[in-house]
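Task: sequence in, structure out. Protein: Outer membrane lipoprotein carrier protein LolA.
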Amino acid sequence: MAPNETDDTTTAGEVEEPRAGRRRAARYIVPVTVMGVAAATIGLVPALADSGDPDLPDITAAQLIEKIAQSDVERLSGTVKITTDLGLPDLGGLESGLLSGAAGGEDGEGGSSADPSGRLTELASGTHTLRVAADGPDRQKLSLLENAAEYSLIHNGKDVWGYDSASNEVYHATVDEADTKERSAQRPPATPKDFAEEALKAVDDTTSVKVDGTAQVAGRDAYRLVVEPKQSGSTVGAISIAVDHETGMPLKFTLTPAGGGAAVVDVGFTKVSFDRPDASTFRFTPPKGAKVTEDTEQDRAHGGFGGKPERGPKPEEDLAKGLDGLRMLGEGWNTVATFDTGTGAGLPTEEAGGDLGGFLGSLGDQVKGDFGKGTVFSTRLVNALITEDGTVYVGTVTKDALVKAAEAGK
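Result:
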């Protein structure tokens, strides 16, 4: 049955509401994470196998949110499918070349094709199949399955290993217990549970949260929690979270755009077990003849596992500190982040920048308003405006809403 409540809309008055600043920052951080950061640091992400309509006891949205909050799953293994469709322009071989360079491929200098900081950015677009396993905070493994090859990232105690079977290259870093705890507190969303928690931080009076029936995900009975903006002007259509009936763990996260069409992000399990994986799953020895790269630069945070993060401010504080005067304009789902690039100028024009200026201009739409002139770059989820004086406005809002926000914030 579909366990809908009589009044199926929940607002912040019914669930514990975070501070206003954190809610608004979270609403900005989530789409940015979806575009790149989370895809680059993904640890255990899942896609969906959906069938059946299980008969489960009625539950309210507030109760289901509480069930998610109390979920304490630490051990699992399974197969994952992740699909990301941001509607980015086709850059031909440019994207793969950049990723290869970032990962230290054939043309990389001093890098390794097994370095997770480059390899996991592949999850930012297209459809990928993963095998995942976890046994507490000290042991995780993710394998990205490719044609006739496999990339694996293993965290086992103090050791972090990356292995690219295609090139027979190995990446190795070490971490300590304090680093692991620090990274867990600071890393951006990586699992459906993480995505769900970040999305629920954004719940306020501009948000509708309801239970919308049931589903089966990877053979497990689940409730569907749907989060939708009440405001017009947002590019977010709805966020659907499939929540495991027994454990309260989110099994699927789907974000659909207001403009319709396929989901922008769809991650979920196709197979899952909550039994403890065998200890051998997390053991790794470099194969004979493999090139091993030791990561000795301990202030880097590779792939959500390796490297040593700097102690100190929270991620949103780092974000604001790294940008010149980051501010939030508007409210709710129409919140727009703005900051100054510090250059005093926008993108190079075709006259001044030649082919580069013309190329960049062709990727965006030219707009003007009280802020002057600028260029809007669009995906199916996030729009960004760069003005001629070097100010940036970005948010999960339509182009028109973004221009209005820039005019109001000038």
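The chain is about 25% helix and 30% strand.
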